[in-house]
Amino acid sequence: MPLFLISLGVVGIENALTRYFAVAAWSDYGYWIISIVMAGFALSGVVVALFRDTVVRFGGPLRAILPAAMILAAALGFVEITSNPFNPLRLQNPATWQAEVRNIALYYGALLPFFFLAGTYISLIFLQNHREVGRVYGYDLIGAAAGAGVALGLMFVLHPFVLAPALLIPIALAAFFERGRLKGLGVGLATLALAGGEYALFTGQAPAFSEYKAIYAPMNTPGSRVVGQVRSPQGYYVLLDDFTERVDADLSNNAQMLGVPGPPSTLGLYRDGARIAALPTAEGLDAAYAPAALSAAPYLLRPGARTLLIGVSGGWRAAEAQSLGAGDIDGVEAEPLLHRTLLEGLEDSPPIRLPRFRRLDDGPIAAALSAPEGGYGVIDISSDFIDTTPANMNGLTVEAFEAYLGALRPDGILSASVSIRDFPVYALRVLATARAALEARGADPAAHVLVYRSAWNVRILVSPTPFSAADITALEAFSSERSFDVAYAPRHTPAARPFNDLPRVNFATGEIVSTGPDDALAREIPDVLAGRPSPTARDFHVRAATLDRPAYYSSLRLENLPTLIQRLEVLPQAEIGGLVNVAVLGQAVVIAALVLMAPLLFRRRTGEPEPRRLWPGLYFPALGLGFLFLEILLIDKAAIFLNDYSTAFALVLTSMLFFSGVGSLIAGWTQARPKLTTGLSLIVVLGWGWLMYRYADALLIENLHLAAWLRGLIVVGAAAPVALALGTFFPMGLTQVGNGRLLPWAWALNGAFSVVATPLANLLSRDIGFSSLLYAGAGLYVIAFLLLPAAVSRRASSTPPPVLDLA
Predict the structure, then answer these.
(1) Which three-class secondary structure state does DSSP give residue 789?
(2) Alpha helix locations (H) across 58-96?
(3) Which pLDDT score is estimated for 604?
(4) How many helices (H) and strands (E) are present in the chain, helices listed first?
(5) Beta strands at 408-419 and 329-332: parallel, antiparallel or unpaired
(6) In the chain, N or C terminus with fewer CB closer than 10 Å?
């Protein structure tokens, strides 16, 4: 029970810290937490291996002291990170990045002690119970699963900034379940530490949103009002009433000449400090501005068409479509809170009540696959759809576009909005995706695409049949009247002097290449539609997104790292995640290499080297990498299936930890037959991998219409068998290494290579695809099976039990 509670508290705090970084800074930097956790575990394993005899000799006092020490380390570390002046934007500035690197080091210095102490405690439990490794590891993993579940449950009721203080309690409770004459000392120390730690947390500097997040300025504007707050694992939502909040509509500069009013005042909805939607006030939805919006063209080209909205933007997109004369309107809103708000409202924002509007419960692909008879005349993807929730990136893939085109009537129009505020590359990538979907239907992309734009956004129109000359003429007239630019149409020559200048820029040097008003996008579209390399492709990825490789913000060519670092200040914040992964991977490789060399320290310190067994140095790294690869693969597939990344993460993480723990308990009963147990487990892993490879995507798409709770059960059912099998490998390996210094070293290796696995898996899925994680994960477990000795070694089975101070 002490181990169960310690694991619960540690994983709970890990989740709490990840949420803290998502809210106070940016979620990309949550990868640091995983790195710090596993680095602490790896370092603790090496130290326990070096001082193994001393640790065992003083095992009783250590178990009495360590819970209290962990509580103080966690509390003081959290106080330190809340006062850390880290600024992610200064990290992108060549003149200020050095100071921010020091601040990152302070994060590591603040949090590493807690996870080092936790790793030391768990290593000690393994040493004291080396004959029951399967049971020990089972309690460790099941406790971790409980910690993930408890943390997620608390996210519904607690502010993200007080999650960590609440999760110190299980660590203190661990002392109450200890045995022996030092139990009273442990309970007293843990109680005092908990009281002191909570006092430090609640009297120290209050955590706050970064001043560079979108919520900071409106929240601190005089007269602004927080209308409501919602806490959930999906995020911390804040609804603001402030005079700066307006509908996010890209309007023509000629709106006044057209007799169209500006966008009305709204409430602003923020998740984790990022604005995700404008919600209507009690005055309702007045979309009189719609005729001047960039998004209006499809409704004028196909008047009265039945419409499917992919992203409803707080109801405003439905109001705009209705104002522009659309027929029946179906709306898909994948973001959970926004989806509920359409039906029930949120605080001062009323529910959406529009004639001819119907809210769909399906995700975008499922909605398209269940299109009404006759199909839609317009399918409209909103401008904020991609940034509303991480799972929405699956709605801009080749498979999604194929579903949309199949849901349109023959002359229907798919309209997709893409921002070009940062880089035109995103528009080119969506075009490449549309091209792949059209080619899959046997169509010539050049005849089925129209592109027009403002200074800030691009609208890409795609039709199952070629656009007519009348369509092109109508779009040209629409754009000219509103000072928009037609960037591409069949038989259309772009204007020599566009209304909205978009100059060509040399990314490597930052120099503008154009000599006058230009449309850099118009110059490259023909190449992209023809499948030819475009100039932008030299510096960025211009490729179709698929369900196997759906990441939207993955345009950077990481092989051009020196250029990217040189131009760091102009990169979009959303693209920084890839570079953060590279940085975390670099330091993780260094840590892993140092842990691998730890046996050299054993020899130098004791003069009596451990037996020369090379297999643990490959076996446990293979497990650390393979487990995370398969877990991350499942999380991302589940995100597509559930259309919600947060729920997918929670279900898969908890399921994998729990069922792996059960697998470890099973391994404890069969530890005398390591090859048989792991052989059967390997058959399960390979069979599961083959089923995932052959059928997962097809079954995923075919069952998107099922109720959310049923899809959740399917996710748990998919995770259970492979997690059960994976859980047998680690305890079987620990059983073989015995009770010497190799046992904590093996623990350290697993932790160190788990640090490597997380950023490496994200980079592999980003640039190659999720299928690469399946191949690599299965292959690593084949290697692990081949490395594991056929029988329990005599040394491992005959090692005398350590002296325990448990009287």
Answers:
(1) coil
(2) 59-82, 88-91
(3) 55
(4) 31, 14
(5) unpaired
(6) C
pLDDT of 237 reads 93
Confidence tier at 670 by pLDDT (50, 70, 90): confident
Main-chain dihedrals φ then ψ at residue 225, nearest 5 degrees: -140, 130
Tokens of 721: 């068998």
Task: List pLDDT tens digits, range 122-175.
Answer: 989 888 887 788 888 888 889 999 998 999 899 998 988 888 889 999 999 999
User: What is 587-611 written as a DSSP string?
Assistant: HHHHHHHHHHTHHHHHHHHHSSPPP
Tell me, yes or no, if the pTM score tops 0.90: no
Q: Which residue, 540, 664, 634, is CA-closest to 143?
A: 664
| Residue 674 · residue 788 · CB < 8 Å | yes
Alpha helix positions (H), 249-354: 297-301, 316-323, 336-344
Q: Of the candidates 136, 55, 141, which has an alpha carbon nearest to the alpha carbon of residue 734?
A: 136
What share of residues in the chain are helix, strand, coil (percent, to 5)?
A: 60, 10, 30
Nearest to 319 by CA among 345, 295, 347: 295
The answer to whether 277 and 384 have CB atoms below 8 angstroms apart is: yes
Supply 707's token pair.
């109720």
CA distance 658 to 660: 5
Token look-up 């979620």 returns 27
In DSSP notation, 354-403 reads -TTEEEE-S-HHHHHHTPPTT-EEEEEE-TTHHHH-GGGGGGGSHHHHHH
Q: How confident is the model at residue 33 (pLDDT cuts 50, 70, 90)?
A: confident
How far is Cα 552 from Cα 544, in angstroms, rounded to an integer? 10
Which residue has 């129209």 as its token pair?
A: 450
Residue 74: the pLDDT is 93
For the chain, give the percent of residues with pLDDT over 90: 42
Question: For the chain, what percent of residues have pLDDT higher than 70?
Answer: 95
Cα separation, 407 vs 404, in Å, equals: 5
Mind listing the pLDDT tens digit for each residue in 144-158?
999 989 998 999 989
Does residue 780 register a pLDDT over 90?
yes
175 alpha-carbon distance from chain centroid: 35
